[in-house]
Structure formats: C-alpha cells, structure tokens
Amino acid sequence: MTIGLVTEFAKLVHSTMVRVTTILVVLGISLICAAMLFAVHTDDPQLAAKLGPLIDPGGWAGYITVAIQVTGAAGFVGYGVVLSWLFSREFADGTITGLFAIPVSRPAIATAKLVVYLAWGLVTAAALLLALIVLGFISGLGGVPADVVPSMARQFGLSVFTIVLATPAAWAATLGRSVLAGIGTTIGILVLSQVSVIAGSGGWFPFAAPAVWAIHTDIAVTPVQLALVIPVVVLAVALTLHAWHRLQLDR
C-alpha cells in the first residue's frame, strides 16, 4: 500500500494536467468571483440583475455566496477531471500491463489513487478558500464580518462534499478505460443536479444537496438529506475497487 501511495503521489505531482486543473480550480474560481466585484458599480440594470448577491446583500456575504455557486459547478468538473485522469492514465499510457506484474494488488493501487486524490482535493479546497479571502481583501471588501465566517465554512464544506461526490468518475473511467468516460459521467451528474434543483427536489438528490445547503441558508436541507451522500460515495468507491479487482487485460 505504501508503495502504491508513493507511486501515485509522484504521478500526481508531476502531472501537467493536474497542475493546470489545480490552477483553474483555485485561481480560476477565485479570480472570476473577484473580477465580478469590479462590475458591481454599473448603471446597466440587466448586468446588475445578473450580479445578484454581489449587489444584494453585497460585500463579503454576496462575494462568498457567488463563490459557493461557482464552486458547486466548476469545482465538481475540475475534481471529476483529475479523478478521471488518475484512473484512466494507465490505459492511455499503456502502463496497465505492468500493474499485473508488481507485488501490489490492483484494488490496493485503486485505493492509493483515491487516497492521493482526496489529499490533493483537500489541499486544493483550502487553497481556494484562502485565495478567495486574499482577493476579497485586495478588492477592497475590508475586514471579514463575524456573520460571514459560517458562509466561509460552508464554502469549504461544499468543496469537501464536491471532492467525494466526484468519485463515480473513477468507476466510469475504469469501465470505459478512458478519461472521456469519467468526464462525461461528471458532466452528466452535474446536469442532473441542475435539473433536480430546478424541479425543487435538489435536497433529496445527493449530488445537489450539498450545494443547496451551502447556497440557500434560508432553505432547510436536513441532516438526513446530506447523509445520503455517504451511501452514494461508499457505493462509488466499492464499485471502483471491484472493477479494479476484476480488471483484465483483454477487457
């Protein structure tokens, strides 16, 4: 297991794709939100309507609300892309054959991939929150009010939920033996999440419930609804490990 962790960590650290995705998730999301702050002072009523929370309630509260909205979608795609790459690169690079010859079981390798991914995701989530805070100060929002701190906690919490909820991409990338299979699954889940929110049932759709909980503080998302995330993630992990256990070179 230790060998697998060291190997997968080295792959992740030296991956250009992971570096680019990290930059897009951390700086991309935070810069988009910060740039929108400069558009607040506008005389265009249509643009003002689109800016929504940045104008009402505005300040740090509106800024973090927008960040949560962007993270819920862009973050999910970013995490899904990295997870898809981690589980499909062996097939794309042709190194899958070598995994059958090393003294480490394939489920152990898959577990190492998931652990490394989780560690990377948590670091990325913390870096994103820090970047949002720094850019908020630079943009002139001033000190952080005490009542905004819970919203920041929800921002980080949503990132964590998003990290673990992207795990079906690992199973899809393994079955499809392609990064596109994982990314396609990620996008499909995101679309279904948006549909569930529009239909008013987002609280009961595990992939949408964390975003509804983080964005709408006035709408009750019960602990039971949030807890539905657990069986979904456990099932996705179990299916991924099972797929790696039954992995064959000839499909």
UniProtKB/TrEMBL annotation:
Q: What is this protein called?
A: ABC transporter permease
Annotated organism of origin: Kribbella soli
Keyword check for Membrane? yes
**What parts of the sequence cross the membrane?**
20-40, 60-87, 114-140, 152-172, 179-204, 224-244
Top-rank taxon: Bacteria
What keywords would UniProt list here? Membrane, Transmembrane, Transmembrane helix
